[in-house]
Amino acid sequence: MSESQTSRPDDSPTSRIPLDPLLAGALLLIGVATLVPLHGPSGSSRIYWTLEFGDALRNIGLYVPFGVAWLAGHRSLAAGVVGALLLSTGIELLQLALPGRFSNPWDIASNATGALLGGVLWRERRRWLRPSKPLALGMALACGAAIGLSGLAVGWLRVPFIEELRIDSHWTPDFRYLSHYQGEVTGAAMNGIRLPHGRLAHGGPIREALSGEFDLRVIGRVGPEPPRPGILFLITDGRKRDLLAIIVEGSDLWVTYGDRAREFGLVPPRLPLVDALADAAPGNPLYVHLERRTEGFCLRVNGLEKCGLGYSAADSWTLLVPFSVPTPWAGALWLALMALPLGFWSRGPAAMLGALALALLGLIAAPLFFPLLPTRFIHLLAILAGAALGAGLQRATVGSP
Q1: Given the DSSP bridges, would you call strands 285-293 and 214-221 parallel, antiparallel or unpaired?
Q2: Interatomic CA distance for residues 70 and 114, integer angstroms
Q3: pLDDT band at 238 (very low <50, low <70, confident <90, very high)
Q4: Which domain holds residue 143?
Q5: What percent of the chain shows pLDDT beyond 90?
Q6: Pick from 169, 184, 255, 187: which is nearest to 224 by CA?
Q7: 8, 225, 246, 384: which has the highest count of C-beta atoms within 10 A?
Q8: Could you tell me if residue 315 is inside a domain?
Q9: Mean of pLDDT over the chain
Q10: For the chain, what is the domain count?
């Protein structure tokens, strides 16, 4: 039989649409981000119809790699968008039966938008990989401005946001989506004002304290480690929104509060004290002292203390990543990644210096206007390192202009 009469595997129709590693990686990323069960009720069958900026932004970013991988395999852009629609529809249906997951039909539209954006980025890659000099200058300056503005955005979004007049205090409340912490609260006070369980008759001073500096003290007894996070102490407004919460998770204790980020559907704050209750047996006395000052939070639990808790201008990534905890090294890595395109698109020292000036100015100025931790030197170095790496990558892959 001649070679022309045989069908080689590489020429078969199915071999032209393989599940290549890039697409498999994009699908794995989507699966982990959307189908892993979380803390919460099982089989809730709840559907949200609210379009939130934060959710839409995360979904678009999640499906951009899918769109890139789809077109990188020489596939149709239209087919990629249809595939994203079908994939996300199936995921939304599965989420109805997964613990801690809630379905939102708006996610389908944002997922398809992400796939479309990723496909267009791949199809038009020559334009942004090899831009003209004026376009490259504009993109480098825009990247520098985006880094600087991200620092200012963290400060504005992490500011406490309180608009309701009613204030309620809760001692070890039992909520369906969390464990009921079996410890005990016997007393709580903020700035010397007692906080009994229930509605506060005079919430004005507490509302003012939550908007600025405060000194909170909670006393009680330690309970057994909860299987899921459980609330020790909580302050809510009239719409049942968390204004301040002290949460026990295993032997850790962490603090969250209501900020502007929540109003946009972004990730709420999460400030932990690891192993705060590791040496405390159930029934032991519990003393929690939480202070918020200009320099951040200070959390003390039974003699264990951690101060300087809070956010810096480098922590814009925490607004998008669920369950994220700000750390100096994570912030440095994020800034270095953000600075990569800055260096890649800079053509010459003048463009590089201009873009870096915009980035550094925003990060340094943000703590002057908002209650953020001071920008660390390591974060400024990370921007310089990322820009240098981007410039080197440009020369290695495209060639110097």
Answers
A1: antiparallel
A2: 12
A3: confident
A4: 132-158+325-397
A5: 69
A6: 184
A7: 246
A8: no
A9: 89
A10: 3
